[in-house]
Amino acid sequence: MKAGVIAVQGDVSEHADAIRRAGDRRDESTTVVEIRKSGIVPECDVVLVPGGESTTISKHLHREGIAEEIRAHVAAEKPVLATCAGLIVLSRDAKDDRVDPLGVIDVTVDRNAFGRQRDSFEAAIDVEGLDEPFHAVFIRAPAIDDVGKGVEVLARWDDRPVCVRDGPVVGSSFHPELTDDPRIHDLAFAPEREVEA
Questions:
Q1: Active-site residue, selected from the candidate residues 15, 60, 175, 185
Q2: Is residue 116 classed exposed, middle or buried when 0-12, 13-18 and 19+ CB atoms within 10 A define those classes?
Q3: Average model confidence (pLDDT) for the chain?
Q4: How far, in Å, CA of 189 to CA of 172, rounded?
Q5: How many separate domains does the chain show?
Q6: Which of 141, 172, 136 shows the shortest CA–CA distance to 154?
Q7: What is the pLDDT of residue 189?
């Protein structure tokens, strides 16, 4: 399996490690490549869009021609995992004119809904498809305000959706790459089965 990590900002190496661990759990060899320019996404089986500053990520994806490649990747039913700012960038509506969202997750997102950096927190959350709670790390986390009809809510915190699936795309408000637990990465690419701890 070839996994591509958008390498503009965020936890690029942590996502790379997590997707390798998820591959190991499935006895699948995983090659990870960093994506900074167009032409790489079409070669990838899976794409990961980390956190960071959503305005910067959005501008880079459009400027480099990566945005349309991600849309084509999703249209081909190939999986994507988007976390924190990645969720904002892939949403239908980021409620911020500085972000030009890709519209591949039919949700509206409220940036920094759970507070600023000093309001970061961790919590054990129940995630649909996981057999035990997941230790989620929320850092300047967005919340999902509105969910389209075809979107499956996988997890909630404080009665707000924080992890969703829209076709081949999984988006989370939290940072699964900041734990040693690869189950969210595994779940993103194995939707047909329950993922064991």
A1: 175
A2: exposed
A3: 91
A4: 14
A5: 1
A6: 172
A7: 73
